[in-house]
Amino acid sequence: MSAANSQRLIDLVSDLLAQGEVSWVEFKHNNSNAEMIATRISAISNSACLSGQSIGYLLWGIDDVSLSIVGTTFDPNSYRVGNQVFALWLAQRLAPSIAFQFHQVDHPLGRVVVLEIPAANAAPVTANGIAYIRIGSATPRLTDYPERYQALLSELRPYAWESGIALQYITADDVLNLLDYAQYFRLTKQPLPDNRAGILERLTADHLIIADVGSKWNITNLGAILFAADLTLFPQAMARKGVRFVSYGGANRAATVKNRQDGKRGYAAGFEGLIAFINGLLPKNEHIGQALRVEHPLFPELAIRELVANALVHQDMTISGAGPQIEMFEDRIEITNPGAPLLAPDRMIDLPPRSRNEAMASLMRRMGLCEEQGSGLDKVIAQAELFQLPAPLFKASDDAFQVILYGPRTFAQMTPDERVRACYQHAVLKFLSGDRMRNASLCARLGIAKQNAAQASQVITLALQQRLIRPADSDHPRSGYVPSWA
């Protein structure tokens, strides 16, 4: 154990003794009754949740009357129940599984054992099938107190990655060196306080940091992933979530790599720089105006911004060793993020988004780095139509989600699937704006000349056969078309 971890545990014991025995902290001397410990874990886990604490504690080596350190002979590492390792025996009796941890502390006043017990999330924690709660020094069944049971159910929340700890037990100076707090105040449009205490107070209010024991601080996963000045200074699991960008000199990954960048800054701190970097590398088309040649990017810059923000916000942060990836080819851009989407790809345009990372999404919206709920992908589709690009492709797998934005192609160069996809997305946009898709509007979308309108009719027929669209009014064939789910 490192010196910093040892000191943190000593400070933790001191803070808990100062706190006293509350519903989520209990002190023992040498009592090592296995069934008692299992029952206490259930009670303390549920009580910690009710009290708004992320962790509860059971400590040995403390006199529970005087709350003085007296030392303990209890050793969880050597303790056995029958022939079974104690920690395994406990894990088999607790449900749902929680990541409890024993720590042995060489405190100057005596040996102390600390059991960290995560607060219940998603469901009450049971021991041998029974949920317990702490009331004073008693540990009754939770179901004997229906009002507390209902209160606990209302407090239960699934685990949120953003609230996890990226770095623990660091000084205030370390916080200010590791986080780009100046960017936080600029993006949130708050005046920068003129003292350190004011800065820490604001970072705490947005759950970017939380106070630890011994006047030290913890940086949360949310704080690190959004505002890290350098992600490589954090544990590897966090550093691997940086955005990776690769551009190729051809149409596939066998082509020469022209540019590669592994993002080191937090998503919010580095977002504007990342978008500017990508836009600077976008292929350009030259358009001749009345007097001047004007270069326009091959891909809409607004669409790139929205898709990158979408990949950051909606990824599954619990997948280790993976982060968002942006790959630029000569004819397309592929943006991939870890985790299967929570919505079916063909309904992402119209349904409100569901995010695994609500705190991150909320803060990024507040800072203007991504769109208000439900409008981001609409803008991407609208930009594709405005630039008369092939319809973007949304691809979902078990462990990733990918969006492909294609460069310009004529109607003749599009595949039948691309034509039908453009037809469906066009029908969705029309419906969301209170309109209906018609043959003429699809011709304009696909760049089909008026005299070739029969080509649009063929695409509509295919979309009808695939049940992606339907007539708006079956009794009036000229009434136009809407999405099949409308």
Outline:
This protein is α+β, with helices and mostly antiparallel strands. The chain is 36% helix and 20% strand.
What report would you give on this structure?
Helices cover about 35% and strands about 20% of the residues. It is an alpha+beta fold. It folds into four domains: about 5-160, Methyltransferase, Cobalt-precorrin-4 Transmethylase, Domain 2 (2-Layer Sandwich); about 160-240, no CATH class; about 245-405, Heat Shock Protein 90; about 415-485. A six-stranded mixed beta sheet has the order 14-13-17-18-20-19, with helices on one face. Strands 1-2-7-6 form a four-stranded mixed beta sheet. The termini are far apart. The model is unreliable at about 285-295 (pLDDT under 50).
Q: What is the number of independent domains?
A: 4
Looking at the structure, the CATH topology of the largest domain is: Heat Shock Protein 90
Per DSSP, the total helix count is: 16
Name the shape in a single word. elongated
Write the layout of secondary structure elements.
Blueprint lengths: L2 H17 L5 E4 L5 H17 L4 E6 L19 E2 L2 E2 H8 E2 L5 E7 L2 E9 L7 E2 L2 E2 L14 H10 L9 E6 L1 H7 L2 H7 L8 H10 L3 E3 L5 E4 H7 L8 H4 L4 E5 L8 E6 L4 H15 L2 E5 L4 E5 L3 H14 L10 E4 L3 E7 L19 H9 L9 H11 L6 E4 L3 E7 L9 H17 L6 H8 L6 H13 L3 E3 L9 E3 L3
Parallel strand pairs: 1-2, 13-17
Antiparallel strand pairs: 2-7, 3-4, 5-8, 6-7, 8-9, 10-12, 11-12, 13-14, 15-16, 17-18, 18-20, 19-20, 21-22
